[in-house]
Structures are given as structure tokens and as C-alpha cells.
Amino acid sequence: MLINKITFRRAFVAFSTFLLLASALATAATPEALDSQVRKYWAAELAKDYSAVYDLMSDTLKRETTREEYIKLRREIGPWTYVTADVKEAEVEGEIAWVNVKFDYKLTKYPTVGGSLERWQQWRRTDVWHPVPPAEAEQWPVLPPKLRPLAEEARVKQLVAAQWAAMSRQDWKTFYGYTSPAFRGAVPIETFLGKKSKLLYIDANVEWIEVTGDEARARVTYRYKFNEPAMSKMTPREDVVFEKWIKADGKWYRDLELPEEDSKKCEAKKTGA
After folding, report:
1. Of 93, 112, 201, 216, which sees the most CB atoms within 10 A?
2. What's the pLDDT tens digit per position in 77-127?
3. Cα distance between residue 96 and residue 23, in whole Å
């Protein structure tokens, strides 16, 4: 009977802990939680309290930079300090948010030089919301969804997914068809198909697409194995790739880098050399 009571208590404690954690995560995901963190951040920036700013930064930045290093960097290099800040609006999509801020600033090294800017600041939610450091900014779209061509992005997303499906089937002839006219003009299909892929692609998830004019970026998480018989039983690994796509004559293509020699030949043709 005593064992049953102990088991019940442990189960009750574990379940209660789970509920508290779930409640905390749900609270952290609310618009109010984002608003609170944004206000704390900008109050600290305006007060030049870089220790408080550091507390609000991502764990990635904290692993790379100590508090003392960060404070010294902000005070001595900057690149700028904020004089005023007006948070206008925010848009949230999953674990990413874009906060529109208009601010006045002065250059840290030249305090008599300054100006005004308005931009969308990226924020990301892990356990809590935090501003995305400049080094991580390219991992997500620059602008919020409402300012992007969503229909065009959906179109590109279908192409990216279809391309990865071909890669998973090792259907390299179909994959070749998604490459740009410039790539196909420089690399004949016989040459392309004659090369062995170093990897076997298991599956892929197209996380987001960002279209800017006739260019697009795609973030794709994929699983793979090495294309070697001796490694066929290995556990699939996961990685992330940022793909470039371009639009030509109304169609979207994967913008693969040209081999160096082929690239030189193309450039010579353009210049007439």
C-alpha cells in the first residue's frame, strides 16, 4: 500500500510539473509576452544598460560572448546608441516575430553624427522571446508575411518541395530540370548525370520561402546519409540549407553555383573575351 502511495505521489508531482511547464510555455507564446520583452529590451537600450540587454539576448549569442565582452563591445564599438525608440506594431508567425520600430540614433564612435531609421526587428521565441542577433538574421525572412508576396512564395514552395522529392528518389534528370537556364547552358545534362551524388537524401521540410522581386530564398531542413555502401546502416543526419531561386521569363529556377571553369567561360562569352 505504501508503494502505491509513493508511486501515486511521484506521478502526481510529475504531472503537476508538466502542467506548470505547459502553462509557462503557453504564457511565453502570448502577444503580451512578446510585448513585455520588447518593452524591456528597448528600455534597456535607451538607458544604455547593456547588461540588461545581454540578459534578453539569445543563448547562441551568450555562448559566443561573455557579458563583459558584450558590454565592452556595445560601449566602445557600437555601432550606434539609441536616443529614442517608438515601437509601432508587431506580427507573429509561429516562433518568429517582426517588430516595427522607428528610432533615432547616434554613432558610438562619432556621437555628433546620427539619424533616424524605421525597420522590422526580428524576434524569436525559444523559452522566452528574444531579439535575433545580426549574425542569425539571415536564418529568417527580413519582412513579416503581410509585406511579402505570399501567393508567389507558395508557388516557389511547391517547386522547392518537388525538387527535394526528386532528390530523395535520386531522380537527377528531373532535378536537372529545376536548375536555371544559365546552369543548364554551362553544364550539359550528360555531364551532370555522370557525377555521383555524395549524399542520399531521405526527406526534407521546406520551412519558409522569402520572395524579393525576381529572387527567392528557401530554408530547408533535410535528412541524409552518405552515399557509400559501408555507411548504408548509419542513422540519418539532419542539416539545414538556404537555397537561392531566381525567376526568368516568368518561371522559377534553382540558382545553383556554376563550376568555376564553366563560370569563367560564361563570363568570357558575356564580355566577348
Report:
1. 216
2. 999 999 999 999 999 999 999 999 999 999 999 999 999 999 999 999 998
3. 20
Residue 184 sits in the same domain as residue 261: yes
The H or E element containing residue 63 is helix 59-64
Full residue range of the structural domain in which residue 32 is found: 27-140
* pLDDT tens column, 216-242: 999 999 999 999 888 878 899 999 999
158, 69 contact by CB (below 8 A): no
Q: Which three cell numbers stand for residue 243?
A: 537555397
Q: Which residues contact 119 (CB under 8 A, 6 or more apart)?
A: 100, 101
Residues 6 or more apart from 65 whose CB is under 8 A from it? 73
Cell numbers for 45: 537600450
The three cell numbers of residue 118 are 524605421
Q: Which residue would you say has higher pLDDT here, 269 or 187? A: 187
pTM for this one? Answer: 0.78
Are 131 and 36 in a shared domain? yes
- Could you say which of 101, 121, 140 is where a domain stops? 140
